[in-house]
Structures are given as structure tokens and as C-alpha cells.
């Protein structure tokens, strides 16, 4: 490995590190989204079981809850992306949220697989760089 190849390899390692950091952040955001989505599903399921007039605690975000009185109306408003929301009955809302959970899990798996491939490549390159540096010192 000549000096130019060594510099390129070290630059590639820095690039891999930046990519892995970005993927770690993306993974963390997906995990938070998954937890929030699962909480919304549990809330809707609790409201399905509640009777009109019952008081239930509903997550308001940030570990805060509010007490609400259940009405006759068994509808939820769900976000469908790009800032748009639609009203669905509770059963359809649960199905919609289930689909979102699966999408998030698929995305998280993809991110993890990509990170694994990059990490494997970076490890091999790092070993080659370290061997070259040791060879030059010895």
C-alpha cells in the first residue's frame, strides 16, 4: 500500500465512521417512533374496551397523561404522512397502526443490516491500514 492508498483508506474509514454515526441516529429515531406508535395502539385498544362515560388516562407525550371521558364516538385521527391525517374507526385505526409498526420494524432492520455491512467493511479496511502502519514502523 503506497502513501496515497493509505491516505485514501484512512479517509474511507472516517467516511464509514460518519455513516455509522448517522445510521445509529436513524436507528434511535426509528426505535423512538416504534415506541410511540405502540403506545398509540395500546391507547386505542384501551379506548375500544372503555364504555361511554368512563374516564381513562391518555398519553399526551413526554411522559405526560391526561384524563379524558370516553364519548359515544369511537373514532381516531391518524397521521397518514406529509402532515395529513384521516379519521378512522378504532378497529381500522388499530389495523393502520399495526401496518405502521411493521413498516418501522422493516426500516429498522434495513438500517441495522446496512450498518452491519459498513461495519464489516470498515473492520477489514482498518485491519489492512493497521497492518500497513505496523509494517512501516517495524
Instruction: Give the mean pLDDT.
Output: 93
The major beta sheet can be summarized as: 2 strands, antiparallel
Name given to the CATH architecture: Orthogonal Bundle
Trace the largest sheet across and list its strands: 1-2
Span of the ends, CA to CA: 15 Å
How much of the residues is beta strand, in percent? 15-25%
Radius of gyration: 24 Å
Low-confidence blocks of residues: none
Supply the number of helical segments: 2
Report the count of strand segments: 4
Given helix and strand content, the structural type is alpha+beta
Question: What number of structural domains do the residues give?
Answer: 1
Short note summarizing the structure:
This protein has helices at 3-49, 90-137; strands at 55-61, 64-69, 75-81, 84-89. The protein is an alpha+beta fold. The longest helix is centred in the last third of the chain and has 48 residues, at 90-137.
Amino acid at each position: 500500500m503506497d502513501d496515497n492508498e493509505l491516505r485514501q483508506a484512512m479517509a474511507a474509514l472516517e467516511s464509514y465512521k460518519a455513516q455509522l454515526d448517522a445510521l445509529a441516529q436513524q436507528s434511535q429515531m426509528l426505535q423512538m417512533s416504534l415506541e410511540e406508535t405502540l403506545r398509540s395502539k395500546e391507547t386505542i385498544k384501551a379506548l375500544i374496551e372503555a364504555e361511554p362515560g368512563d374516564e381513562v388516562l391518555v398519553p399526551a407525550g413526554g411522559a405526560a397523561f391526561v384524563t379524558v371521558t370516553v364519548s359515544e364516538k369511537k373514532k381516531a385521527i391518524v397521521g397518514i404522512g406529509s402532515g395529513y391525517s384521516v379519521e378512522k374507526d378504532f378497529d381500522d385505526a388499530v389495523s393502520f397502526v399495526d401496518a405502521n409498526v411493521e413498516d418501522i420494524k422493516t426500516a429498522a432492520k434495513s438500517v441495522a443490516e446496512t450498518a452491519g455491512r459498513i461495519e464489516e467493511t470498515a473492520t477489514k479496511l482498518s485491519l489492512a491500514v493497521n497492518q500497513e502502519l505496523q509494517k512501516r514502523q517495524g
